[in-house]
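I wish you would study the pair of lines that follows with an eye to the fold:

===
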Amino acid sequence: MMNIDEFRKNAHETVDWVADYFQSIEKYPVKSQVNPGDVFKQLPEKAPEGSEPYSKIINDLDEIIMPGITHWQSPSFFAYFNANNSYPSVLAEMITSAIGAQCMSWQTSPAATELEEMMMKWVANLINLPDGFTGVIQDTASTATLCSILTAREKYSGFNVNDKGISNNMKFRVYCSSEAHSSIDKAVRISGIGSENLIKVGVDDNFALRSEELEELIKKDIKNGFKPLTVIAALGTTGSTAVDPLNEIGKICKKYDIWYHIDAAYAGTALMLPENNYLIEGIGYADTFVFNPHKWMFTNFDCSAYYVKDQEALINTFSILPEYLRTAEGDRVNNYRDWGIALGRRFRALKLWFVLRSFGTDELKNKVSSHTLWAKELGSTINSEENFETLAPVPFATICFRFLPPGIDNIEEINRINNSLMEKLNGTGKLYLTHTKLNEMFTLRFVIGQTYQEKKHIDSAWELIKDTARNYSQ
């Protein structure tokens, strides 16, 4: 078993390994090139009976594990949305792991609770969130959305569902756009509301929810005896980063007394830029709002900033107080175990504190501004290039586009070719792209935003995309 002296020595070596990894990350294939089962078959069937030297463990990390890693921190990672880290965030995670605190209540670590409370204030100020919101860190936006729906369910049922279950006469409805994130589908299942009561609203030419259609669906449901419970709007959909008309939706929610949640998981970070102030209009109507610093604010996964207007409703939804959790501080402090689903909580605020102080808000804004500028430039370049086109606006730093092979106008064949192009590109190991479908068109997504990305990485990726597409068409 490792002793403290060995720990000190191995820790120094591990930090060197981490620094070397960051320094050489561009040498790795961005998307892992292993086949299913390649890693599994290299692992022994049982754990070793005796202690193994740390040097052997690290060697196996290099030889067995690293070939099976897709490198999310590579500056040539353009897939999904980023799950970023940064040097100060990694250091904070090391300290968090060493402290090993379980931060379920104020008493179990007062500093963790009070730092989280202040970080939520810092972040709210940074993204220009209106007054009236109180924040808490959740693990993911998926969890935050579930918390929002559960809170709405309890508030609109008089807090009876937790005790008695959902009755047949409640007939709740939840609304979102057809482009909304799949976590909403999962949340309505978990909440007991049911998939049949999730109403998907159509979108406009920019893939944003049609507010007039939303209101018509609400009026129809009310007439048919349903209770409109929640509307979930997207500030940046997953597929194309479309922005739903937040102000119009907010007015509808107020008119019909409907709980209003805004999912800004990816794009919320962009609200710190002055040029995005127009997006704030309508957020004041929201009951809850979420975005992920672990996407575009360079903070290790997981760290999701969840804001609520009605703090009491949130706590009444989740609070269970057995004798062993009672403490003398009572209501004088925040016990964040009552602000969400999990009882156990990590010290997530520390890494956010390290990031905000190490970067400073000016540098955070500069990075996000650069990513946005590069995306808009690439979008323009794609549209000026023969045989390529963008398929959605570029409000943030995600470009949706496709290759149009010359002489082919059949959509199924164009889709097949673009799928094949993506696989060829990812197979090079030089970049990583993913896709969505927009109006039944296979759409390549190019997401800019990795912490240490530079313009040269975008330029290099685009040249590879063009060359590979041209070779494909020959």
Q: What stands out?
A: The longest strand covers residues 227-234. The chain has two domains: 101-359, 361-473. The chain has a mean pLDDT of 93. DSSP finds 15 helices and eleven strands in the chain.
